[in-house]
Amino acid sequence: MKKRKRKTSRQLKIIRRKLLLIMILSCLIIIGCVAIIALKNISEDMLAQFTEETRTSTKGDESPTIESKSDLQESIAYILDAYDFDDKQLSYIYYDPKDDETIQVNEDEEMLAASTYKLPLAMYYYDLIEKGVYTKDTALPFYEEAYMPEEGISTIYTIDDQIPLSYLIRQAIVNSDNSASLIMLYTTGVLETYQAFSNYGAKQYTLEEINNNITTARSSMEVLKYLYSHQNKYQELIDLLKIASQGYFLQAGTAAEHYEIAHKYGEFAGYVNDYGIVYTEEPYLIAIFTDGIVDSPTLIADLNDVFCAYHEQKYK
What is the pTM of this model? Predict the structure, then answer.
């Protein structure tokens, strides 16, 4: 019995030591986890601060003072200096409807339109509604070719479903829904629809350009001019453009904090574009198209802010 008691006592000591060791290791693990979380939070804060400082240094003053065209060119050069790209990767046009002033760079450079084609597409359908070809309640069939699994209206409707035209237009403009846009495009025919875009000043697209969804800043600006000149006719569409992609692209800068912006962006395969109407006291139109420029959404917002400052000083 005495032997057994000594053995039990020894075992208890070993167990106590193991428990103590486990407790120490547990404490060390907890301390390590807390330290990792703290370092992660610090890193995220530092990254956020660095990102904001980078954006601020790139952008310069939030409200740049631009009193002349030379000031404008200097401000544009300052912004572009922070980006690394070939000249042909950027095209833009600023247009003042009041005095017809136009400032443009690479306006005829071919760019992938991405979703920017959805603006003239919606205009075309508003025209067809006005002519009585369709009503806003007309239901269009969900073509199999327009179906995109796990995207947009494809998560709600299925092939052959009938979808109200008013809903399709809203989805195409506000949410840039690809399936909604393709349903409209296939209903009226791709070739016929693109040919109709020329009614709004867009270029006459070749079959190759249509198949590859090619456009230019100049062609897109002509569509904007038509839209601006017929605002009463397209007021409902303009209201949709004002709530589309809020806080992004043209709506991401300082200008959007002070003025309404009706715009339609497009983004695909490195091409990032946006064009729209900025409702300053005397509105102006702007189109900015990019090809493979890193952080191009910020570039678009910053360029628009500079043009906005320039435009404001014209009408002080």
Answer: 0.80
